[in-house]
């Protein structure tokens, strides 16, 4: 595997942006299957490589991994900040494919993330089910409405002018799930959370919501907290779960 540290100009953000990319080495017959792997609120694009063995795990599957930096944006076009949703959902895939031999096919594209990144991965898949075959949330911040109500982070209040506008909007995973339900081509969903995690109850609510809607959700829980030991273990489960057919 090759690990590339990439800096590039982002028109969406108006700054020099960063991503780490893991690529399989050797000859290949076709463009690479790709996992967009998203970081949490207190992290950056380097964290997955520093705190897990993602490079070694990805090697076993021959998959490319793209890890962008999105600051503390909650993967949103911010009212007081930059357009991180436009960046991660539109500009990043386009630029990554121009730099590296990555597949454009829906069946070859996946997203996953932890905490804030779990929210971002589900937001990608539920907003663009035509682009992602499967998405995974590890200890995800899936209930943005509850986080606003509890003032979980002051960073949230940079996302929108009025938190009352969030329910039912494109920031609300519960609403996005309802829009996808019943339509053909919903992405596969994988959700996990430790039972001692402070986000556990939020994840249970979202699990039940998806089940009622009939979405294709795989859910796992076991003892665990909001920590890297748990995420290092579960990202291996995500890779094993992804529909990576041999060709």
UniProtKB/TrEMBL annotation:
<dbReference type="InterPro" id="IPR050583">
    <property type="entry name" value="Mycobacterial_A85_antigen"/>
</dbReference>
<keyword id="KW-0378">Hydrolase</keyword>
<protein>
    <submittedName>
        <fullName>Alpha/beta hydrolase</fullName>
    </submittedName>
</protein>
<dbReference type="GO" id="GO:0016787">
    <property type="term" value="F:hydrolase activity"/>
</dbReference>
<dbReference type="InterPro" id="IPR029058">
    <property type="entry name" value="AB_hydrolase_fold"/>
</dbReference>
<dbReference type="InterPro" id="IPR000801">
    <property type="entry name" value="Esterase-like"/>
</dbReference>
<dbReference type="Pfam" id="PF00756">
    <property type="entry name" value="Esterase"/>
</dbReference>
């Amino acid at each position: 595997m090759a690990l590339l540290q990439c800096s590039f100009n982002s028109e969406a953000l108006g700054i020099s942006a960063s991503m780490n990319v893991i690529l399989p080495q050797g000859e290949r017959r076709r463009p690479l299957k790709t996992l967009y792997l998203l970081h949490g609120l207190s992290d950056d694009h380097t964290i997955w490589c520093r705190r897990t063995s993602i490079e070694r795990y990805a090697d076993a599957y021959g998959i490319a991994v793209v890890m962008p930096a999105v600051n503390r944006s909650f993967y949103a076009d911010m009212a007081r900040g930059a357009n991180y949703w436009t960046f991660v959902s539109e500009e990043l895939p386009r630029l990554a494919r121009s730099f590296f031999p990555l597949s454009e096919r829906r069946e070859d594209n996946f997203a996953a993330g932890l905490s804030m990144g779990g929210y971002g991965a589900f937001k990608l898949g539920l907003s663009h089910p035509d682009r992602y075959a499967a998405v995974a949330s590890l200890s995800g911040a899936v209930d943005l409405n509850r986080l606003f109500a509890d003032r979980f982070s002051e960073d949230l209040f940079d996302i929108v002018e009025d938190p009352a506008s969030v329910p039912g909007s494109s920031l609300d995973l519960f609403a996005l799930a309802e829009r996808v339900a019943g339509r053909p081509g919903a992405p596969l969903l994988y959700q996990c959370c430790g039972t001692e995690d402070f986000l556990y109850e939020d994840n249970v609510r979202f699990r039940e919501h998806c089940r009622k809607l009939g979405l294709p959700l795989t859910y796992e829980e076991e003892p665990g907290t909001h920590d890297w030991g748990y995420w290092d273990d579960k990202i291996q489960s995500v890779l094993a779960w992804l529909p990576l057919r041999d060709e």
